[in-house]
Amino acid sequence: MSNTNTSHEPVITSYAKAPTRTISAGGVTFAYRELGPKGGIPVVFFVHLAATLDNWDPRIVDPIAKNRHVITFDNRGVGASTGEVPDSVEAMADDAYTFIKALGFDKVDIFSFSLGGFIAQDLVVKHPELVRKLVLTGTGPRGGKDIEKVVGVTYWDILRATLTRQDPKEFLFFNRNATGKPAARAFVQRLQERTVDRDADIKVRAFQTQLKAIQKFGRSAPADLSKLTQPTLIANGDNDRMVPSVLSEDLHRRIKGSELIIYPDSGHGGIFQFHGKFAPVAVEFLAR
């Protein structure tokens, strides 16, 4: 398919400038942003716990959007999307499917992070024909060891962040050391580059429901990921306290032919800390 932009609008390749749009399907109005040249298979981004449209690192989105149609969206009940947050990851995957089909796509690539990776896995297991390529970052498999402990770690770090007036992501996504602290601050600043039309923060109840869904996902029987035939790129930091790094290795073992990258001296947000290295790898993988 050609990448010609038929509407003659200038192609937006900066996530900070991507307009927010809505589409209604299955009783939900989904908020989403799109950028990059239209045409071909889009890359749909599946976001993390408590995250809205404003939580994607522009240093990862923008390089991918240079040559690809990129779509980010708010899950049901999050940010500017209507409805109630589902209390299971499967239901979140059903919503993602509804959203993608409403936009008229029969084939997508998926870029996922953390909870987004759980949702992406459930989606691809149920609808393998929809997904061409899969990027799974900072995530792990259904029933993975210690996934249910995310809840305790998250609440502890939110408390630590509140007491020090910092963003919880600085604790949750990065090591509290000489390399991690500046990387954390830089990441949080990059998320502020968009100054207009920012998304609404997640509501506390919606966040708590997402945590319940994660707990269920962690405690349930594993999915059969050996059936996955999609080229899959897996990445994480070597010290992920939220979704333990060993779970990335576990995913790599379960998904035949998958590629695994573990970044040194970094945590859950390893791909953000190493965006300069990771973004070109993701671009190359998705372009192959």
UniProtKB/TrEMBL annotation:
Cross-referenced InterPro entries: AB_hydrolase, AB_hydrolase_1, AB_hydrolase_fold
Stated name of the protein: Alpha/beta hydrolase
Signal sequence coordinates: none
Any one Pfam family match given in the protein's UniProt record, by short name: Abhydrolase_1
Cited SUPFAM superfamilies: alpha/beta-Hydrolases
Record GO terms (molecular function): hydrolase activity
AB hydrolase-1 domain location: 43-272
Organism: Agromyces albus
Keywords of this entry: Hydrolase
